[in-house]
Amino acid sequence: MSSQLANALSGDYQFCHLLDIEFDWGTLALTDADENIDYNGKTYLAGVFKSFGSVKHSNGIRIGDLKLNFNALDPSVVALGLNERWMNRRVELSKLISTHRGIAGRLSLYKGLISKMDMNTSGSMSYTVSSIWADFEKSAGRQTNTASHQKYFSQTDPFKYTPLLTDAVPWGKEGNGSVKSRSGSGRRSGGTVPRVVKQH
């Protein structure tokens, strides 16, 4: 934190929130202020970003969600929900601090990836943003379900022939009868463990 920002936070200051969402075509910059904000070479547009859920900070690694609410009466917001590829887009929410002398600096509040979108008829749309640690809990690779299969083969049913399967399905191959003990030494089934003779 810069000394200018630290001094501003220790006295009287005003703030608004800045929201950055990264899409393929560039970064969408929004603010909950009453008017557009020019900061760091970007113009943060007002009137679209309405509010967000509570932000909790922790010293440990936690997977928390943050809900961002938008004004869906704006046609551009409807486009964000219906036309954009919003899944896993990077999001940063920050607080812009200003005093009577001007803008003092910016505090980052939350960083994450968009994981869900909701839109209703009451004129609101929301993105649910998950912590970047949420990706570490996702199951990697293919899964044994219809949705996972049809992600790659949309016109086929993975369980079409399941009723024709028999109960007993051979798996693997026949072994040679040898097993491993817990210590890792070889043992022959039905036999004795060979003795180790020390050489003098």
User: H/E order of the elements?
Assistant: HEEEEEEHEEEHEE
Helix content: 10-25%
Based on DSSP secondary structure assignment, what is the total number of beta strands?
Answer: 11
The largest β sheet comes out as: 7 strands, antiparallel
- Rounded mean pLDDT score: 77
> Rounded to an integer, what's the Rg over CA atoms?
29 Å
Beta fraction? 35-45%
Structural class by SSE content: mainly beta
List the helices and strands and how they pair.
Blueprint: H1 3-9, E1 14-23, E2 26-31, E3 37-39, E4 42-44, E5 49-52, E6 65-71, H2 75-82, E7 90-99, E8 102-120, E9 124-131, H3 146-150, E10 178-180, E11 186-188
Antiparallel strand pairs: 1-2, 1-7, 3-4, 5-6, 6-9, 7-8, 8-9, 10-11
Write structural notes for this entry.
A hairpin with a 2-residue loop joins β3 and β4 (42-44). Helices cover 10% and strands 38% of the residues. The chain has helices at 3-9, 75-82, 146-150; strands at residues 14-23, 26-31, 37-39, 42-44, 49-52, 65-71, 90-99, 102-120, 124-131, 178-180, 186-188. The protein is built from three helices and eleven strands, in the order αββββββαβββαββ. The radius of gyration is 29 Å and the shape is elongated. A seven-stranded antiparallel sheet has the order 2-1-7-8-9-6-5, sandwiched between helices. The termini are far apart. With 200 residues, the protein is mainly beta.
